[in-house]
From TrEMBL:
Residues 315-387, 436-455 are annotated as: Disordered. Residues 321-330 have a biased composition (Gly residues). The chain crosses the membrane at residues 12-31, 43-69, 109-130, 151-169, 181-203, 234-252, 267-288. The keyword Membrane applies. This is Uncharacterized protein. Keywords: Membrane, Transmembrane, Transmembrane helix. Residues 346-368 have a biased composition (Low complexity).
Amino acid sequence: MCHETPTSQFLGSLITILGTCFTAWHIYCYDKGRCLLFERKSAFRWIIVWMFILVLCFFCIYTVMLTYIKYQEWYVVVNVSDTKTEILPAPYHTWSAYRQSLGSTSYQILAAAFSVSLWINCEETLYWAYLISTIRRRESKSWFQSVQMKIWVGVCLAITIICYGATNIDTTDLLSMERNLIFAGASIAGVLFVGSLWLIAVFPGFIRESQRQGANPDVIARLHYFKELNEMRTLFRCLYVVSLLAVSGDGFTKHTPVNAHPFTLDLFYIAGFFFIFVSNGISLMILLPRNTGNGSGVSSSGGVFVRRPVQDPAHCHLDRGGGGGGGGGRTRARQRAHDDDRMDILPSTPSSSLNSTSKNPYSTSSSPLRSTFKTTRDRERGSPSPWGILNDRLAIGSNNHHHHGGKKVQDDLEMQSTPRGGTFDQQCEGSISKGGGYHDEEEGIGGDEDKHGQNSTISMESITLDAPFAPTGGERILSEDELAAQRDQPGLLNAFRSPADIGAPAPPRDLNIVVVTSTVVEKT
């Protein structure tokens, strides 16, 4: 502001610089800056991240410019009466023409900072409203096709027009520019604060709905974490709205008691800046949540697995016919029927382990199985799963791609995907005799129970985090190191379920029923 003390302006610039440093550190810890690179899958998140960076740049430029002006102009002696003088910060009309021009430019930059910051605040509420409605209605409409997206674009245009319109009402009076801009921005922030209150009110019900639909513990824990962060963010938004309204609204009064007193002016100015950057920092933590599992002593270099019951591969299941009815020892191949809405069993690799791979190691698989996380209607539309949209917003599986154990986990998964040095399709083809018959290769079908660290049948393309409600079954026997870790941490496997607990339906089998009749004739 053009009438606060140089010291308070310096503290404001220090807050913005520290906020910028925190943002850079958080982005680096999140994925070493890869979120700054454009990817089609996370295009909208990329836009919001760069909005955060623009806000920080604009605020830093504004505060540094005014700090420079304040320390150049310093203080002046002002005659407040015939017998009394005071030492006050130099009024803007005593500045040089060049510094007055710099001050006017700084308020144009502040208008841009306020506009982009309010865009982000509006997006946060509208995006969660879109997610909640999508989950409850079980729709698969993308964010770019939603009504909330159109509302957000319209609100962004309105915010920009209001902020710049209020700033440029009178560009010759710096006090008027700062008063109008801050009052307009604080008023819009107050309206968005009401939207945050709505989100706080409906979020507990959304968590209960997620639990009712069978959300896994990772999703529920992340939702509770977001709920607490959103409550804190809303509190700081309320505080900075009150601070900015107190300073700007006082400028419309006759005696301006807040702005006329140096203590209250500096208090509300510094508090307003501090609360803005705390609120934006929390928003960044919600947008880019970091997985702190490694910092708490949980290793992501290897997954924890539970033993899976031996089952025949789903797409080359062999039904052995019984005796009688001409069946003899003949075996016949049968393709298991799959429902469109049934979910494949995922490997029990924890999210921290799956997140360690920078990309899906099964993306080039030739397995005929396909991920069945989408409903038939979703496939027809080509739209993402609603739970996949939520999973992307929760950032489960999108961060922490660069842990030290990532390469090892990827190699382990690739090894498990091709037991015996080939895919299950190759095993099925190898079990067909040249004469067109089928052989019961007991070692190839049922021998996996004796193989340490090997997978049972999984779909190559079903290894995905697009379905946070998928069952988390196990895939291999625990290794010696994992057994030792389990002894040290008895509750390590409490969150894991065996595929036997899921209760997959038994495959259909041919039954040969032999009816034997006998006739007894008694002679008299």
